[in-house]
Amino acid sequence: MRAALADERGAAVAEFSLVAALLAALVLAVLQLALGLHVRNTLADAAAEGARYRALVGVTDADGLHRTRELIASALTEEYARDVTLSRAGAGAETIIEVTVRAPLPAIGLLGPANAMEVTGRATVEPLD
Question: What is the pTM of this model?
Answer without folding.
Answer: 0.83
